[in-house]
Amino acid sequence: MNQSKGAEPVSIYEMKGDTDALWADRISGENECAVKDRKSVKAGGPKYLNFIAFVLRKKQAEKRLGAVHFRFHRKDRGKR
User: Fold this and answer.
1) pTM tops 0.90, yes or no
2) Can you tell me the distance from the alpha carbon of 52 to that of 49, in angstroms, rounded to the nearest whole number?
């Protein structure tokens, strides 16, 4: 998270809930992470692992204003 230039951390916390249901949901997919996590679950990983939530906020882009030049003219210029 420290390396993210586009987001700032709002909070980090351990997720609560039925860990068996959370793990079942986590490994039910066919994506690469779910397939790898199945090995950890079968090896007893849930006894030692938990779910951590990271809440991030997208940073607002800094607006940089270019140099603005104003030229003021006196209304009575040339009338002296």
Assistant:
1) no
2) 10
